[in-house]
Amino acid sequence: MAETSHLSSMAMLFISFFVVLMGNAEGETRHYTFNIRYHNVTRLCHTRTILSVNRRYPGPPLVAREGDRVIVKVINHVANNVSIHWHGIRQLTTGWSDGPSYVTQCPIQTNQSYIYNFTITGQRGTLLWHAHISWLRATIHGPIIILPKLNQSYPFQKPHKEVTIILGEWFNEDPEAIISQALRTGGGPNVSDAYTINGLPGLLYNCSSKDTYKLKVKPGKTYLLRLINAALNDELFFTIANHTLTVVEGDAIYTKPFDTDKLLITPGQTTNVLLKTKPEYPNATFLIAARPYSTGQGTFDNSTTMGVLEYEHPFKKPSKNPTLIQPNLPQINDTQFVSNFTMKFRSLANDEFPANVPKTVDKRFFFTVGLGTSPCPKNTTCQGPTNSTKFAASVNNVSFTLPSVAILQAYYFGQSNGVYTTDFPVEPMVPFNYTGIAPNNTNVMNGTRTVVLPFNTSVELVMQDTSILGAESHPLHLHGFNFFVVGQGFGNFDPVKDPAKFNLVDPMERNTAGVPAGGWIAIRFLADNPGVWFMHCHLDVHTSWGLKMAWLVLDGPEPNQKLQPPPSDLPQC
């Protein structure tokens, strides 16, 4: 990773001194260059050519402070089209830098480049960046670490050391070939061959004992672990054997601290935890483990990635055959643990870090999210739920079709005709018993339909899972905003009784949240960011099948409430 600077060292010294004087009020400008290249990687005795940033897997960290401006030049040296999404960055008025292909930009073509330019406003903590086209994020991803402003501290004990842990998935086959075949046949895609911790599958897989992540720690210290789920299609449980973790942040929002010995992290989510090591040197090694939480009926990679927590002794060398302390994880489909765990997240909601949840609502929406079918092309057989159907997914029974040009461009230049419509249904067009027996007709509609929101609209959105082709948990990610999780429950949402139980005092603020399997989640957000903002399931197989939609937020009256003009190097389709 090259963080380049065009200033002399004397100028840099002066700026550093000036920034300290100003308390980093304006922030610095940080330059990065991301080269997308081919890169041979061997895992599980399989060598595969992957796509990566700067030939690193996982990719390099993007480090900045709250208030900094970040400029990333992305240069595409591969045959695939590419775009990068800065997952969780608000992108206030800079929607052109958000990254989802065909939503806010056309992808970067071979031998082309694009400069992402955005300011990190009012955010600090752990996020992630990843490719946002097809399934390229399987190997094109890395951490975003936003430090507090200079002279500002964490609202918890200063850690001895900070460690980033990225959970991912390894495929022996090219993921692009996997999803391409699945979309062609209409069947479920092949699953991954391993889960990984910082790119390493670990002890339990064949031919992998050398590819095991080791976290070396000292006794009696506190470590801040920045946990990121960059897996393609799986929510993951995480634990460190015989150690308690204190959750202090989720999706770059500080939480009221709570202790747990195991966590759930959905794809796209981040969780910061404090690990307090044992006061004395233990004569043992502790296993770190992650494995899937799966509620659907489809096949999934039912394996476990293992790393090692190793205590460093000041005098002794580590034992060659230490006692291995085994981890304890929930059952694969433990929906009750997941529900209880997610309910523990609460915003700090204090003077310094308020929870500005909208108390009144301008517009209410009710979206069903789940699977469905689409008919097979004539005179062909498919591998979907039946041999005459393909798997599909939808929001309010609309399976979203990405256009061949970027929606934001079409909107900005007044060329929406034939690209997108503004008639996305605000509620299901045909109500049914969403978590009961599924209707006979499970076919979805297709379209590029959006919801238009006037600037500063306060929105309440209830997302309801359906039992069509099986109830399943769906981690929904909203671009361009954080939202408040004001309620959740199992069964069908009751618009009369359930709102009375909403938490409007200290709800968790997130950018990605799981719609419970066979249940619902209620969120609120303020549409204070003009542009086109993608919302989709962060299980990429469901995104590929159409579980996605877009919000179009209009400009506000003030100059700083308007979408900025597009940059001159905006890629063309």
UniProtKB/TrEMBL annotation:
Keywords linked to the UniProt accession: Apoplast, Copper, Glycoprotein, Lignin degradation, Metal-binding, Oxidoreductase, Repeat, Secreted, Signal
Transmembrane regions: none
An annotated Gene Ontology molecular function: hydroquinone:oxygen oxidoreductase activity
InterPro entries: Cu-oxidase-like_N, Cu-oxidase_2nd, Cu-oxidase_C, Cu-oxidase_fam, Cu_oxidase_CS, Cu_oxidase_Cu_BS, Cupredoxin, CuRO_1_LCC
Domain Plastocyanin-like: 36-149, 162-313, 425-555
Coiled coil: none
GO process terms (BP): lignin catabolic process
E.C. number(s) listed in UniProt: 1.10.3.2
Annotated GO CC locations: apoplast
Signal sequence region: 1-27
Compartments where found: Secreted, Extracellular space, Apoplast
Cofactor: Cu cation
Domain of life, source organism: Eukaryota
Entry's family note: Belongs to the multicopper oxidase family.
Protein function: Lignin degradation and detoxification of lignin-derived products.
Family annotation (PANTHER family): LACCASE, MULTI-COPPER OXIDASE
Protein name per its UniProtKB record: Laccase
